[in-house]
Amino acid sequence: VIIIIAILIVALPADCFHLSHYMLSCAGGLSTIQVILNNHISDAGWCCSTDDGNGLWYTAGYPTQRWQSMWVALARRYKSNPWVVGADLRNELRAASGIEPTWGSGNTSTDWKMAAESCGNAVLKENNNMLIFVEGLSYANVLLQRRKTVDNALCKSCNVQMHPIRLSVPDRLVYSGHVYSWDEQFQQNTKAGFDKSVEQYLLYVASEGQNFTAPFWLGEFGTNSQDLFWKRTIDLLQNRPFVGWAYWALDGYQHSGEPGDDETFGLFESDYKTIRHPWKLRDLQSVQPKRTQLVHV
Fold first, then answer.
1. Which residues are catalytic?
2. Cβ–Cβ contacts within 10 Å for residue 149, how many?
3. Each residue of 152-194: pLDDT tens digit?
4. What are phi and psi of 115, to 5 degrees?
5. Strand pairing partners for 99?
6. Helix 112-126 / helix 64-77 crossing angle, nearest 10 deg
7. Between the CA of residue 162 and those of 11, 155, 204, 212, 252, what are the distances in Å?
8. What number of other Cβ atoms are within 10 A of residue 120's Cβ?
9. 199: Cβ–Cβ under 8 A, 6 or more apart, which residues?
10. pTM for the complete prediction?
11. 204 vs 220: CA distance, rounded Å
């Protein structure tokens, strides 16, 4: 099974978007390609920063109702297509124009938990087979209170533990997070410290037997360097086969393909034929579930 994370930019012309998914899903019928839709950003551009105005799930041009209606329309459009399997509701929640997203605050302007729950249930009302992916805060690397230090994997200050997502259809929720070397909480001196930080900030949501338990999916990780942080990430995945993952990114370039536009994290060089880092491909294959591969396009 090859799972393609297809990035949705709301401003992208709809015909191009639907054509790309039609081609992917047709290929799915032949080679078990599956598609997870991802609302990456509202205004076309390279993601992400705190000053791009796209840190929340809505913008002035794409208010909450339009964002949710878009997801419902996509769920309806692909309802009969078995190869479109999931909806990653919004990428990397972060500050927008100085406004920080919250989790469980009850503030309709900032409460990502409330918005994700409402949108997820609206999608499931249209298509109850879809998986609903909900990312954490602070660039999707925090599923507990932002920058809150914790001592145990289960903690009363953890967002999901205090305010779990409740969807109308069971077994459809997947929590998601990203892990990169520049994330301060994951910069640890030891492997044990690294593992513990990932458990505390993200993986605790998959703790068995809790009232908030749901699968966790490492929706992004990537590198252009075979460094210690990369090795620790691969080791973490090797020892936790219950964690699904997707690598950022397949692409050989970011925008135009002109000189200097390389996607240095990409699996391919800019020709989309040459493997950029053979060691990286080998590492990813070492943590790849049998017959499953996940990449972003």
1. 92, 220
2. 10
3. 556 667 899 899 999 999 999 999 999 999 999 999 999 999 9
4. -65, -40
5. 96
6. 30
7. 35, 9, 13, 9, 41
8. 26
9. 153
10. 0.90
11. 17
